[in-house]
Design a protein that fits this description.
Layout: H1 5-20, H2 34-49, E1 60-67, H3 70-86, E2 90-91, E3 96-100, E4 103-107, E5 115-135, E6 138-140, E7 143-145, E8 148-168, E9 174-177, E10 181-192, E11 196-201
Parallel strand pairs: 1-2, 1-5
Antiparallel strand pairs: 3-4, 5-8, 6-7, 8-9, 8-10, 10-11
Length: 219
C-alpha cells in the first residue's frame, strides 16, 4: 500500500519535531564551561595526590610554577600553595604570615626559606570528542535541519601532568626530582534514538569532599 504525499510530509514533520528537542547549544560566559572547570580542577587534584611530599613536611619553601597553558598557571600556583599547606609545607611569599610559639610573625625576607620548588605543568587541558551514528545538523535552503541521532557519544576528558623539582635555597643545587603526577577526570554523555540519554563520569561529588582538616606545621 502506497503512502500518500500528505502522509509522507506529516511523517517527516513528526520526525523533525522529535529530533528538534535533541539539539543543544554550548554557551558559556567564561573561558571554560562549568564542566570543563570541574574536570580540570579534579585532574590537577588527582595529579598532586600522586606526588609524595612527606619528606618536606615542616619546610619553608618558595614556589614557582610554569606551564604551556598560561591561563591555568595562576590558578594552579594558588592551588599548589594550598595543597602544600595541607601537607605541612609553608610557602613563603614576599609578605607571608605564619604562627610560631610567640604569636604571629611576618616574613618579608626570602632568605628565611629552606627550599625552592619549581613546578612544571606541561599538560593542563580538557579535550572533547564525539561519535555520531545518524546525520549531523545542517542547513537546507536556508532552513536549519536538526541532527537525526540514532546513537551519539560525547566524551569530555581532562588531563593534568605536574612535575616538581626541589632546590636548596642557599646553593640552588637540585636536591630532588619528584616522579611526575598524572591525573584526569571524564564526563561522557550518551543519546540513543533521539530521546534516550544518560551520562557516565568519575567526577567526585562535592559532598564527598566536605569537612575540616587541621594542619600542624613546625614553627
Amino acid at each position: 500500500m502506497k503512502m500518500s504525499l500528505k502522509k509522507i510530509v506529516l511523517l517527516v514533520i513528526v520526525v523533525l519535531a522529535a529530533t528538534w528537542g535533541c539539539s543543544s547549544v554550548r554557551m558559556t560566559t567564561t573561558d571554560r564551561s562549568i564542566l570543563e572547570q570541574q574536570l580540570l580542577v579534579q585532574g590537577i587534584a588527582r595529579a598532586l595526590d600522586g606526588i609524595d611530599l612527606t619528606q618536606f613536611y615542616g619546610k619553608r619553601v618558595s614556589l614557582e610554577v610554569t606551564g604551556l597553558s598560561e591561563h591555568e598557571v595562576a590558578f594552579t600556583k594558588d592551588y599548589l600553595h594550598v595543597h602544600l599547606g595541607k601537607n605541612g609545607i609553608q610557602v613563603i611569599t614576599d609578605k607571608n604570615f605564619y604562627m610560631d610559639e610567640n604569636g604571629i610573625q611576618v616574613i618579608t625576607d626570602k632568605e628565611d626559606i629552606d627550599l625552592k620548588i619549581k613546578v612544571l605543568a606541561p599538560v593542563l587541558a580538557v579535550d572533547q570528542s564525539e561519535t555520531l551514528l545518524g546525520t549531523p545538523q545542517f542547513t537546507f535552503l536556508g532552513i536549519p535541519i536538526p541532527a537525526i541521532v540514532l546513537y551519539r557519544k560525547v566524551s569530555n576528558k581532562s588531563r593534568a601532568e605536574i612535575e616538581m623539582y626541589v632546590y636548596d635555597a642557599k646553593t640552588d643545587n637540585m636536591t630532588a626530582a619528584l616522579p611526575r603526577g598524572i591525573g584526569g577526570a571524564t564526563f561522557d554523555s550518551f543519546t540513543v534514538i533521539f530521546i534516550i540519554s544518560w551520562t557516565s563520569t568519575d567526577l567526585e561529588d562535592s559532598e564527598e569532599r566536605r569537612g575540616i582538616r587541621m594542619i600542624h606545621t613546625q614553627g
